[in-house]
Amino acid sequence: ACSSAVLDEAYPFVDARLRALIAERLCHWVTWDFEYGVMTGQLSCFCPRCLEAFRAEVSLAANLPLDPTTIERDHLPAWTEFMNRRMAWLALKFKETCHAAQPPARLQVYSGYQCEDTKWRYGVDWAMIGELQACDLASCGYGRSWEQLRATHTALRGIPLVVGELMHPYDRNSDDVLVPATRAVMLRRLMDCTGGVLL
Predict the structure, then answer these.
(1) What does the pLDDT read at residue 177?
(2) Using CA atoms, how far apart are residues 78 and 84, in angstroms rounded to an integer?
(3) What is the pLDDT of residues 103-140, one digit of tens each?
(4) Has this prediction a pTM greater than 0.70?
């Protein structure tokens, strides 16, 4: 989708559709699983309007050629920040729509832990989400890097964090044994989270 349009004139359609789904399903939570790279993701648009928005945001010369190839080669860090910001703005809009729906719902955003790889590979910068308070609950996947866990808590600025514990092998064709959710594992994950544990 064109992220410029979705954040502007197309948002009333998104708002109406999301409200209708919440009313139809009577859900109290909406979970947005966002794990899309900044070059090929759902919001990665390279139309003239999005390219001009990017050019203006990072103060690039008007005659500088911009397309996916030049952006990935010459401007990837700036493009990553640009796309992360757009995702955060859209999350805030989703949150506002969820809160105004009937029945009111809350927004959970799911992605990887806060790190440079998550910003580029999954399109999410939790610091931007935290700054905007753009969701009611944040949820991160599996694994347990203490540095990334701490960075995620810091970035969220008080938004509760659900952490994940993977029990079944991620590869459905794997013959690896199920990892038991022992008391020790659950205690560790409960100490890591502020919003719950996803098994």
Answers:
(1) 81
(2) 10
(3) 999 999 999 999 999 999 999 999 999 999 999 999 99
(4) yes
| Helices and strands of the chain, counted as H and E runs | 9, 5
The CA-atom distances, in angstroms, between 77 and each of 40, 45, 116, 183 are 15, 16, 10, 42
H runs (alpha helix) in the chain: 3-6, 11-25, 48-57, 68-74, 76-100, 116-117, 126-132, 146-156, 183-192
Q: What is the mean pLDDT of residues 24-31?
A: 96
Max distance between CA atoms of the chain, in angstroms, equals: 61
- The structure tokens listed for 127 are 């610091």
For 191, the token pair is: 């100490």
Quick check: 133 and 159 in contact, CB under 8 A? yes
Cα–Cα distance, 8 to 2 (Å, whole number) = 10
Residues paired with 30 in a beta bridge:
107
